[in-house]
Amino acid sequence: MSSLLKSSAPSAVPASTSAPRNDPVRGILFILAAAIFFSASDGMAKFLIQSMPVMEVAWVRYVVFAVLTCLPMLRHGPATLATHHPWLQLLRGGAVVGSALLFIFGVRPLPLADATAISFAAPLIITALSVPFLGETVGLRRWIAVSVGLVGVLLVVQPGSDAFQPAAILPFLSAVFWAGGAIITRQLAATDSTAATLAWTAFTGLVASSVLIPFDFQVPSLAQAALGLFLGLVSSAGQSFVALAYRQAAASVVAPFSYAQLITSALLGYLLFNARPGAATLLGAAVIAASGLYVARQEHRGRRRQT
After folding, report:
1. Whether the Cβ atoms of residue 13 and residue 186 lie closer than 8 Å to each other
2. pTM more than 0.70
3. Are the C-beta atoms of residues 124 and 149 closer than 8 Å to each other?
4. What is the pLDDT of residue 252?
5. What are the residue ranges spanned by the domains of the chain?
6. What separation in angstroms does the CA of 237 have from each of 38, 40, 68?
7. Per-block average pLDDT, block size 10, for the chain (307 residues)?
8. How many Å from the N-terminal Cα to the C-terminal Cα in the chain?
9. C-alpha separations of 266 from 174, 242, 282, 289 in Å
């Protein structure tokens, strides 16, 4: 799915091996940089899948991602990637892979801004899933915010209208898959490091895409291979900026600024594909962002009461 959501929600941030700092300004700058990198990554993916198989584009991303996640082993050894819950890591990796593939399939026929806006339902779905799977308590106000956010998704999708495209279901399913992965991430956060979680996700995606790629493969041109490599680097850089952001400041401070990707994706979609967001998309994105910001604010208040 939209890449920033893979790490932007408070519940989606893996535990880090280094102590967090308290530098909100730097954290916000890092998450804004991540929004730009992820919008560029999504834009390049949409461009590439016009001439390359979707699975091949996903495979290239995971090759680069897997290589980069191996770098900590050069310094700290294989123990860096140790996990206490391998099956949960595989399940999380599968959810993230499914989310990424659904988003890439969805962004091919849809405007980039529409697919991104729909995928930003993920934090709201995470809030809903946290009740049955994590035993968390969600108050009436947050349930209302979640409901309002899903109304925003419907405004973008416009079911039943002439503007509706069945492909709009794909980024929403992508958000559902990522929300499931985020719930697992919260369960893993107490025991596994950021490096371990990212590596397991990268290699799960690499293995899954490698198994499927022979059924849909074409020899890329030099330009396609170069752009695919650059896509992997840009996407991985975005992941790094997200990790840095959540080390610099609290999740409740950083997470709301992830909605900047709604703006950068709309701008990039216009510049690269001449796709102007319609009034329904803009209104729906605003509703989704407002509900997500409210949920983040309520979470921040809840944490302050606990301290």
Report:
1. no
2. yes
3. yes
4. 62
5. 5-306
6. 9, 11, 10
7. 46 43 81 92 93 92 90 78 90 91 92 91 84 80 85 86 85 92 82 84 92 87 93 88 78 75 90 88 90 77 64
8. 34
9. 19, 20, 9, 14
**Contacts for 108 with CB less than 8 Å, ≥ 6 apart:** 46, 49, 50, 54, 167
Query: Which segments of the chain does DSSP mark as H helices, in order?
Result: 5-8, 24-48, 54-69, 71-76, 86-107, 112-119, 122-134, 140-157, 169-188, 194-212, 222-248, 251-254, 260-273, 279-306
The pLDDT, as a whole number, for residue 15 is: 40
Q: How far is CA 30 from CA 35, 80, 183, 231, 239, in A?
A: 9, 24, 24, 19, 10
Sequence-distant (≥ 6) Cβ neighbours of residue 42 within 8 angstroms: 2, 3, 103, 107, 112, 115, 116, 265, 268
Residue 139 φ then ψ, to 5°:
-75, 170
CB-count burial class (<10 Å; 0-12, 13-18, 19+) for 301: exposed
Gap between the Cα atoms of 128 and 183, Å rounded: 10
Cβ(107)–Cβ(115) under 8 Å?
yes
